[in-house]
Amino acid sequence: MAKRPEFEFVKAQSCRDPQVSNCPEVATNIPGVVAIRDSKTPDHVLALSVEDWTTLTDAVKAGEYDLTI
Fold it and tell me: What is the pLDDT of residue 51?
């Protein structure tokens, strides 16, 4: 099995409050890869290409995954 890269995850500024305990964390320190994980389940990592990350974030910004509808 291939060794997982050493991702350096960061939280959004709004998630750095100690009272907020479940935030997405993103790592961009590996060239060509964007990794995302939930702070409550840090062993589950989703790694995307930069192109796929851009597609995902554009779709989120456009409301394609709006769960409030």
Answer: 97
Q: Alpha-carbon distance 43 to 7, whole Å?
A: 11
Residues 6+ apart with CB under 8 A from 56: 48
Q: What is the pLDDT of residues 30-41, one digit of tens each?
A: 999 999 998 888
Q: What percent of the chain has pLDDT over 70?
A: 90
**Calpha distance 67→21 (Å, rounded):** 21
Residue 16 located in a structural domain: yes
Which residues form the domain of 41?
10-61
Phi-psi region of 13 (alpha: psi -120 to 50; beta: other; left: phi over 0): alpha
**Which residue in this structure is represented by tokens 């990592």?**
45
